[in-house]
Write a structure and sequence with these properties.
It comes from Exiguobacterium undae. The chain is mainly alpha-helical. 79% of the residues lie in helices and 0% in strands.
């Protein structure tokens, strides 16, 4: 299926806008990841220890990690933009493959000519 030039330009502009959002929210994504890792580490140590002061320390560390993760909640927008970029790229990539041309050469039995079919698929990729 061919796309019009106008649609291709709009898709390229949308891709650039999504890329700008992803780059702009990259520090928030890093902060969210670090906060989540810190909270996960502190909670796992909190569960393992039996000392009261260690539980208090790991509880405070977990609260700090959760607070760090929640303060970088804008990372969700960046993750959604990255997902949109990925889906758009995969759709664009799939439109370039014409299924009618891909399977135009049908053989009588597919089990006897599997290697040849696989070679055709690999070359057209």
């Amino acid at each position: 299926m061919k796309q019009s030039k106008g649609k291709q330009v709009l898709m390229a502009l949308a891709g650039l806008a999504l890329l700008a959002v992803v780059i702009g929210t990259l520090p928030h994504m890093i902060g969210l990841g670090l906060g989540a890792l810190l909270a996960f580490y502190a909670i796992s140590k909190f569960v393992q220890t039996s000392k009261v002061f260690a539980k208090i320390g790991f509880g405070l560390l977990a609260a700090l990690g959760i607070g760090l993760a929640l303060s970088n909640i804008w990372a969700v927008v960046g993750i959604a933009a990255a997902l949109g970029l990925y889906i758009g790229y995969m759709r664009m990539k799939m439109q370039r493959v014409d299924l009618n041309q891909l399977f135009a050469r049908r053989r009588p039995t597919t089990s006897t000519h599997f290697e040849a079919d696989w070679k055709d698929l690999d070359q057209k990729r």
